[in-house]
């Protein structure tokens, strides 16, 4: 199917939905479903209409320019307008093509963020804590809610691992390319020789799953309760309120101990477990779909090194798109993270457009 045929198909469906909804002859359940489809198609239909208008104007201008009887001044104005339109039409075509790309059903979902210290001992744990704070600040700049769910501290300000629930509009769409290994190069505060050390932390961003997305059978769970403890084993709770849930079919284990209520810890642990199972299911589908895909921006593989933060040189490099920003402080403050995210989103769109051929 050619691009123009796709455009016509979208416009025909858009007109059909408009007429159906205007007639008000649908059942209440159908009305909600069709209204959503109509709302989703509206920006695409508007972009197609804008593109068709631009093409029609360009054709009229080309005709005027080719007319030997045309007034020279009018021809000159037409040529100028035609030149502007020929630059704008490919941009409009790309805009429409992007809007027609299959949507990631998880893009509008909230996210579960997991950050874990990797190789590098205390320095890795300190970096993991800084990454966690970077995402907290980034969430704040976007007006999202950032709720720390479970934080395992090292006692010197570092995190062995930390989990947060981030809620807001389009959270997963903006954060999904953050999954992978983040490497840091710098001189640790504890290093007397002033040598640069390399350490790493792993980030996982999972779409938050609803019960409708993933059903968990109670008989597939083993739930253990234990006493919460703080850094160094110091007791922070005198009751068995901490919860560890093991999903027997997959072997996935989730622990939660931040709340004083066992019920609340169990609810939070189930939320994380559901997100991990949903992410696992998506990864299996993506792997099958992308078996012959060469231009993936990121496979989402947790072992893939995606970014290096070099403090002595003040730079952050994303290895998937070979983009380097010399503004490490602004990236760590969450302020410049959008520059990386925007570039990753654009690269992913370009790769998917290339697949459509």
From TrEMBL:
The keyword Signal does not apply. It is found in: Cytoplasm. Keywords: Coiled coil, Cytoplasm, Methylation, Protein biosynthesis. The keyword Lyase does not apply. Residues 44-95 form a coiled coil. InterPro entries: PCRF, Pep_chain_release_fac_I, Pep_chain_release_fac_I_sf, Prokaryotic/Mito_RF, RF-1. The modification N5-methylglutamine is found at residue 234. It holds the Pfam family PCRF. Methylated by PrmC. Methylation increases the termination efficiency of RF1. Residues 285-307 have a biased composition (Basic and acidic residues). Transmembrane segments: none annotated. It comes from the Bacteria. Residues 285-310 are annotated as: Disordered. One of its GO terms (cellular component) is cytosol. Residues 227-243 form the Prokaryotic-type class I peptide chain release factors domain. Belongs to the prokaryotic/mitochondrial release factor family. Peptide chain release factor 1 directs the termination of translation in response to the peptide chain termination codons UAG and UAA. NCBIfam families: prfA (TIGR00019), PRK00591.1 (NF001859). This is Peptide chain release factor 1. It comes from Azospirillum lipoferum.
């Amino acid at each position: 199917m050619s691009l123009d045929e796709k455009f016509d198909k979208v416009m025909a469906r858009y007109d059909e939905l408009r007429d159906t909804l205007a007639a008000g002859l649908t059942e209440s359940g159908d009305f909600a479903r069709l209204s959503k489809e109509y709302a989703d198609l509206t920006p695409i239909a508007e972009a197609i209409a804008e593109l068709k208008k631009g093409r029609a104007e360009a054709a009229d201008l080309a005709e005027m320019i080719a007319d030997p009887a045309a007034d020279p001044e009018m021809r000159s104005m037409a040529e100028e307008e035609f030149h502007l339109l020929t630059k704008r039409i490919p941009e409009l075509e790309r805009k429409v093509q992007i809007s027609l790309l299959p949507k990631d059903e998880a893009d509008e979902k909230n996210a579960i963020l997991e950050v874990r210290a990797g190789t590098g001992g205390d320095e890795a744990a300190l970096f993991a804590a800084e990454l966690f704070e970077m995402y907290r600040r980034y969430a704040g700049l976007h007006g999202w809610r950032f709720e720390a769910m479970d934080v395992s501290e090292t006692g010197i300000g570092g995190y062995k691992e930390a989990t947060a629930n981030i809620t807001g509009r389009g959270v997963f769409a903006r954060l999904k390319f953050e999954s992978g290994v983040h490497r840091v190069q710098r001189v640790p505060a504890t290093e007397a020789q002033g040598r640069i050390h390399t350490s790493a932390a792993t980030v996982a961003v999972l779409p938050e799953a609803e019960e409708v997305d993933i059903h968990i059978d109670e008989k597939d769970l083993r739930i253990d309760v234990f006493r919460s403890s703080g850094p160094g084993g110091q007791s922070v709770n005198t009751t068995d309120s901490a919860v560890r849930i093991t999903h027997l079919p997959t072997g996935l284990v989730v622990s939660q101990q931040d709340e004083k209520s066992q019920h609340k810890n169990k609810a939070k642990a189930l939320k994380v477990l559901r997100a991990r199972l949903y992410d696992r299911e998506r990864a299996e589908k993506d792997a099958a779909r992308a078996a012959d895909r060469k231009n993936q921006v990121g496979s989402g593989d947790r072992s893939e090194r995606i970014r290096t933060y070099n403090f002595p040189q003040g730079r952050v490099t994303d290895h998937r798109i070979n983009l380097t920003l010399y503004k490490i402080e602004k990236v760590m403050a969450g302020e410049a993270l959008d520059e990386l995210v925007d570039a990753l989103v654009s690269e992913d769109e370009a790769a998917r457009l290339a697949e459509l051929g």
